[in-house]
Design goal:
The chain is α/β, with parallel strands linked by helices. Helix content is 26%, strand content 27%. It is built from 5 helices and 11 strands. The protein has a 7-stranded mixed β-sheet with strand order 2-1-3-4-11-10-9, sandwiched between helices. Strands 5-8 form a two-stranded antiparallel sheet. The model has no long low-confidence stretch (mean pLDDT 91). It binds glutamine. The site of glutamine (GLN) has 11 residues, from helix 4.
């Protein structure tokens, strides 16, 4: 119970989920989202963010992605997307970019390359709260961990006491690369958060706008 699979009741129309394509491993995220039935699109400029239900900030090199976000004027529209009810998944470098010192989308501080040289890359079977009993095969590549976080941040998984999957509201961050395995439960969780937010928006905008 409590497992997030592909949305059981398929939404009436596909969710629009963007993947920031400035740098890094965005193509595999697009494929994972596509296979779950989302309308997945690469995001390179602010117009690509319009109308999205959710966004993935992929792994890569956080300094490079951060500069690209500034260069392409994406910071304000990403904030706007989340404020308007969009869901967000930041993975690896994407988790770093969501933290207090970067986009400030989550009340947490990530530590870059946290596992040191010897553990620069490793795999682990992780129990992730809310994703069911089956562990997630997590591929860590020069990964961060969450060094500190506020009370509103829920830790969904940890390795040696270091949080590696966290969530605050509709913002979900993981330190590993879910796009590198066949297990798309984290993408499904992002889509579930986006669907719930969309339903809320529809409910609050009342019957007058339904079916438009
Ligand atoms: N080490 C990278 C950084 O600090 C993140 C690595 C990754 O995304 N796989 O930006």
């Amino acid at each position: 119970m409590g497992a997030f699979g592909p949305p059981a009741e398929a939404p009436r129309e596909a969710l629009w989920i963007g993947v920031l394509a400035s740098q890094g491993g965005f193509a595999a995220h697009l494929r994972a989202l596509d296979s779950l039935g989302a309308d997945a699109r690469a995001v390179r400029d602010p117009r690509d963010l319009e109308g999205l239900d959710g966004l993935v900030i992929p792994g890569g090199e956080s300094t490079t992605i951060s500069k690209a976000i500034a260069r392409d004027g994406l910071e304000a529209p990403i904030h706007k997307l989340v404020e308007a009810g969009g869901a967000l998944l930041g993975t690896c470098a994407g988790m770093i970019l969501c933290d207090r010192e970067h986009l400030g989308l989550i009340d947490a501080t990530a530590r870059r390359n946290a596992w040191g040289r010897q553990l620069a890359s490793f795999e682990a079977d992780l129990e992730v709260s809310g994703l069911g009993d089956e562990p997630v095969r997590a591929v860590f590549i020069r990964a961060p961990w969450i060094e500190s976080h506020g009370e509103g941040v829920e830790v969904l998984a940890a390795v040696d006491g270091h949080p590696v999957v966290v969530r605050e509201g509709r913002v979900l961050c993981c330190a590993f690369h879910p796009e590198l395995t066949d297990d798309s439960r984290l993408h499904a969780l992002l889509m579930a958060l986006a669907t719930a937010a969309r339903e809320e928006r529809r409910a609050s905008s009342g019957p007058a706008t339904r079916g438009r």
